[in-house]
Amino acid sequence: MGTKDARVDAYIRDAAPFARPVLTHLRRVVHAAAPGIGETIKWGFPHFEQNGIVCSMAAFKTHCGFGFWKGRQVIGERATPAESAMGQFGRITSVADLPPEDELGRWVRKAVELNAERAATPRRKAAPRRPARAAVVPAALRRALEASPAAQAGFRALSPSQRREYAQWVAEAKQEETRERRLRTAVEWLTEGKPRNWKYMRGGDRGVRSARVTATRKSR
Prior knowledge:
Blueprint: H1 6-14, H2 19-33, E1 38-42, E2 45-49, E3 53-59, E4 64-68, H3 71-75, H4 101-120, H5 139-146, H6 149-157, H7 160-171, H8 176-191, H9 205-219
Antiparallel strand pairs: 1-2, 2-3, 3-4
């Protein structure tokens, strides 16, 4: 058995006078065509649901809108007025602007059937996730980490992708001086629990602290 939502009652009651009979008519037609349908408010306007969203309606300052979630599958290509409006029926200002009740009812039933077919179709199992690729740590970075237990602990607490960022950063250094500078910086940042790109994390140091706590929990 379908259900009605008191919020939809309030929405219709608060709509402009011209819109109330339109919304009331649409609501009645939808429930008559699909007795098992339910109501809700999403994004600030009424939606009708059965195994997913079937259709929705809304009232604006000078017109109403009505449309099916799977519009093209339900009614195919349908011409609407040149001026854009929500749904597939253009700018609705009165019940007279809507298709006949029996036609609307057929489309509602078709939309419900489409949702039921989708719900009955077994979903494909997600492919198993590949294990994260381990970082290939350059010898220079490995020695620097071995010499600093705190930095080594910080490195181990990072995610695999964050470890790869450090490893790649050090490995890409062309000059010995550049490599040594990057190693010193890496040890300093890792001791503080910072990933390679910590400066670009939301919240700066606060983001680092949050990431550090998360990484530490993962490492336990």
